[in-house]
Structure formats: structure tokens, C-alpha cells
Write the C-alpha cells for this entry.
Amino acid sequence: MRNFDNSKRIAIKIGTNTLSRAGAVDAAYIRSVARQVAQLIKAGREVVLITSGAIGMGAGKLGVTGTVRGIKVRQAYAAIGQPLLMTEYRKSFDKLGLTCAQVLLTAEVLNHRQTYLNLKNAIETLLKLGVVPVLNENDCVATDEIGSAFGDNDKLSALVASKLDADLLIMLSDIDALYDRNPRKYDDAKPIKAVYEITDEIIKSAGSRGSKFATGGMKSKIAAAQIAANAGCRIVLADGRVKDVITKIVAGDEIGTVFMPKRKLSNRLRWLLNSASAGTITIDDGAAAAVRKKKSLLPKGIKSVSGDFKSGDVVMLNNIAKAVTNFGSGELKLIIGKHSSEIKDVLGSGKKDVVATPENIVFLDY
């Protein structure tokens, strides 16, 4: 459970409150992280860093101490803070003879298969070159309104760990563990050393969002654990301010909470599961049963179509699965309930005879 000897690729997420002090970059802490990462690389591991802090750093530079509200203001603070953040990472790694690379992401990059593959190839190349990729959400351009925001870097870290086939995700935060009840309210709350299944009870007890600059909280960390679990990736949530916390975790010390995965999906199915859906195909019970048995989805089993999507887009099947559709929404509406043999007569030649194949369908549950 805590044996990470075979964990070759490690993703490390550092929260805003962990790497900053009084609204400024804690250079000494970043040097400590760099030193530990250097030790892992020397031991033959590959490391990807996912960092928060750009908005907080920008606010601190301007002397802002209150809650940061408004998309435009947060974007501006991120633009100010991101180079300050990367300067500290660069200086820290330079002293250790390592090069780091900045990678800024929006959700759109990971949602589209081709741009996701481009990103994956770029990071794989950086790792082969011995470079440390430092990833952050591109807060300067990402907004919830255009669907390009991840929501928080906990989710981003889990998506990165999942889509880059990381063996271990270490989430460093000011939250030291998952507790059986809220430790801020109950003095007898006890930390949970290991989680084998994320139940509804655990989700409900997770609480709300984080601090004035951060957007995470225990709820977002549990959601991240669910994402990484589908990749067969273990997560350790720990207090980022524990001395040498990274090397201790990798060595197997019982620090924080470890979340154990329940299944390991293929890289393609993980991309599909974690991509935003462009619409919904409502199917009947017979079709739902068939696709669960790894059968293709046929137009005969479709009841209705909602949303505006095209061939190759990711869509929901009821609320049970995601699929890559072979037809656009307009085409599907013309062949609802028809036999596959009728597709050619309705849409013309050159069209596939199934709506989605088993290798392009993934269920949300286990």
C-alpha cells in the first residue's frame, strides 16, 4: 500500500497556501521542493510538478490582502504572479543543475484528443531530456464561462497524473489528511490512513472550498482522487510543510492519507472519461444493457438526442457512460430508432453502421 519502489513517474501538486507566506513566494520552500525532486530524479524517477499560486503571488505583489473576486481581476493577478512563481522554480532548479519548463494549460487542451496527445508528447519529451515540467492552469485566459477552467488545481493535478500515466500523485496542502469528521469542529476527529473506496459518506463529509486565493478544499481533493483512481494511480494527501515530505512519502512513511485505486483504464478510456461532453444521447434499457456487455451502440436503441455536436465528439449516454460518437447530432436525429442497414439510405454512403464502438465507450461507475 505504501510501497512506492516501483513508482517511476510521480506527479506532485503544491497548493497555494503551502508554497506561499504572507502573499509572497516562499523561496526557501521552493528550494526544498527542488532539492527533493532532484533526489528523486537522481534515483531514476520522473517528476512532474503541478503548482498553484499565480493569483496569490500577483495579489501579494500588489499588496492586496482581501479576497480576490472577479474573473478579470483574477486573470490580471495571475499574469503578474505567474512569472514570479516560475522565476523561483527556475532559480531553485538551476542551482541543482536541473532545468525546469513552464507548461500552462486550459481544460480545452485536455478535452480535445489531438491537443491532449500533443501535450502528452511534449511532456514525454521533456521528461526524456531530464527536464522538470512545471504545470499550472493558464488562469490569465481560462474562465468558467467559456468552459476552459479546471475549477481548481486539485482536479488539474489528477487529470495530469491520469493522462500522463503517473504511478503516484502526491498532493501537498495545508490539509494534512482526510479525517473521519471535520477536525475544525470536533476535537476527537481522527485521521484516516488509507481509503480503499470513496463512498457517498466520505464525499458528503468533505466540506466546502478553500481559502481566499486557493479554490481547493477536501471536497476537490476527493474528486481528484476519484479521477486518479481510474488510472490505477495512488494518491497521497499530506501536509506540505512536513520536513522532507516528498522523499518521506516516496520512502513509504505513513504521512497523510493514501487513496487506493480500484481500476486501471486504458489511456484512451481515461481521456474519454475525463473529457467534457458536448451533448447527450438517451438510450433505452436494451441498448444500455448491450453496451455494458461491450456491444456497439446501434441507432435502434436511441430514444432522443440533445446538444449540438459533431462526429468524433464526446457525448453522454444517459447518465451512465461517455462515448465518442460516429455521427453528429443532426445526423443522429434522422436515424433514431432505425436499423443499421437503413443508415445508408437516410444519410448516404460512406457512413459507419454503428453509433459508437465498445472501445469508445466508458462507464462512469465501476
Summary: The CA atoms of residues 24 and 57 lie 5 Å apart. The chain has two domains: 9-270, 277-363. The longest helix spans residues 71-94. The chain has a mean pLDDT of 88.
